[in-house]
Structure formats: C-alpha cells, structure tokens
Design a protein that fits this description.
The protein is mainly β. Helix content is 0%, strand content 53%. This is Ig-like domain-containing protein.
C-alpha cells in the first residue's frame, strides 16, 4: 500500500511461510528505485499427535446378578489425555462403592468405571470426558437401575357404602410400574365387571395399587394379599381381611325427632270416702301424648 510520503506492506497473522526477502519497486517518469527487506519469522513448531478417538465404543456391563455395574471404553490418543467422569453434571470421586481406572498400552487407553451394589439413586446419565491438546471426546452412557419391588405397609380396606364398593389398597416402591396380582386366600382375583385393579403413581418410585370390588356380596369376604413383580423379582404384602360388606342398611336412617301434639294435662283424683279418717294421698299423673315419627325406607 503506497502514499506520496509513506509506503507500507502489512502481513496479518504471520507464519513461518511468510518469511523471506521482500522488495519494494518504485518507479516514475524520472526513474525507478528498489528497496529490499529480509523478513525472518520464528514460529512455534506445530504440535504433533492425535486427538482421542474410540477404539472400543462405550458400553455398560452388569455382573454378579446386578450387584456390579461396569462402564468402559477404549480410546487412542497422543499425547496422554486427561479423563473426568460425571454423573448428572457433577464430577465423580472414588468411594467405597465407586472406583475408576485407566490402563495404558502404547497410545491406547482402557477406561473403566465400576459401581458396586447400585441403587435407584445411581440411575441417570454418566459422561466420560477425554481430552488432550489435540482434541476432546465424550462418552455418554445412560444407566437405568431397577430393584425388586418393596412393600413396607400392610394393605388397608376402605368402604364406600353408597356405591356398595370396597377398595383394598397397598403402596409399592418400584422404579417402574410393577406387574400386580391380588389374591383372595390362594386364588388370584381376576378382573371382571365387578373387580378392577388400578395402578396409580403417587410420586417417582412409588405406586398405589388398588383392588376395587363393586356391588359387594357376602362371597367377597375373606383374606386378601398383593404380589408385585418386575424383572428383578417379586414382593408379597401382608394379608388383610375383609370382614364387613357395605349394605344399604348401613346408610343413616332418615326421619324426625318426636314432637308434642298436645300439652301436658293434670288429672285430679277423688278420695273414696271423704269422712274417713284414713287419708289417701292424691297422685297427679302427667300424660304425655306424642306423635310417632315414620321411618323412611
């Protein structure tokens, strides 16, 4: 770039290839001139190596009947990468139930996380961040932990008299909705026009399992229990006995309290012999007449 009083060449972001001899040639009608300039650029050598790449894709392995969970992968990287595990966005640290290891052979790294006796709180997204100066790699693994159902309380019985309905209810703890079967004595209760099984989620990890019996009959009396199952196993509740069946007679009777139709009256009595020295005390009898109320059917 030239001006009457100034001549300038600007090189942005110079690199080693920009070094060398530069010449400025200036010419007009009276003659010409040349200016030579040597430019030496000392650039840092470009880093050598490779960013992390997967040799074995991330996976989740369950061992010892689900009591040990292993998450692992293999990567190739140069130079050696830094490795950080996350769960739910928080950095993981080793503990009595959690261990992390890295085995190195040449430029290949076997990365492993071991989780002992996992519980539902260990479910969620796990991320392994693998990073070196040449690049970055993330391994994302989603862990779903399911344990056998847990029933902590005895079932309870509720009567709805107006509908002649009985509800037997039990709370079950499970990661997902379990398969539920109600038993009366030793026989499974099958759903029909009077018997209904309803499973309602109370909150995360807890379900209310209800057996509704409509148009109750005497044959519905008996001992009931719940069996809840999932892929890990099953749980059986305590038994509860249905003794009373709601009937129409149990409804409150309708009617009115007694009222007086006629006020109280005093009835005098007479002495049998007024001249006799023998005295007879007169007794006043109060007669109360009431109107009986009719009971409504």
């Amino acid at each position: 770039m030239c001006s009457p009083n100034d001549m300038k060449l600007v090189v942005h972001d110079p690199a080693g290839s920009d070094g060398g001899t530069y010449r400025c040639h200036v010419k007009n009608e009276f003659g010409e001139s040349n200016a030579n300039l040597n430019l030496n650029i000392e650039a840092e050598p470009e880093p050598e190596g490779d960013g992390p790449t997967f040799i074995q894709k991330p996976r989740i392995i369950s061992e010892r009947g689900g009591k040990l969970v292993i998450m692992d992968c293999k990567v190739k990287a140069t130079p050696k990468p830094t490795i950080i595990w996350y769960h739910g966005g928080s950095v993981l640290k080793e503990s009595s139930k959690l261990s992390m290891s890295v085995e190195e052979k040449d430029d290949i790294y076997y990365i492993k996380l071991e989780l002992k006796d996992p519980g539902t709180e260990d479910s969620g997204l796990y991320k392994c961040n693998i990073k070196n100066t040449m690049g970055e790699l993330n391994a994302n693994l989603t862990l779903n932990i399911e344990i056998i159902p847990v029933i902590k309380e005895k079932p309870k019985v509720t009567k709805i008299i107006k509908k002649k309905t009985i509800i037997v209810e039990c709370k079950v703890e499970s990661k997902f909705a379990p398969q539920c079967t109600w038993f009366k004595e030793k026989s499974a209760v099958r759903e029909d026009s009077r018997h209904f099984v309803r499973i309602e989620q109370v909150r995360e990890g807890e379900f209310a399992v209800k057996l509704e019996i409509e148009s109750c009959m005497v044959s519905d009396k008996g001992v009931y229990k719940l069996v809840a199952k999932n892929e890990k196993g099953e749980a059986t509740s305590q038994t509860v006995e249905v003794i009373d069946i709601p009937t129409e007679e149990e409804e409150p009777k309708k009617g009115k309290k007694p009222t007086f139709a006629k006020g109280l009256q005093s009835l005098p009595t007479k002495l049998s012999n007024p001249k006799s020295k023998q005295l007879t005390h007169g007794v006043s009898a109060y007669v109360c007449t009431s109107v009986p109320t009719q009971q409504c059917c």
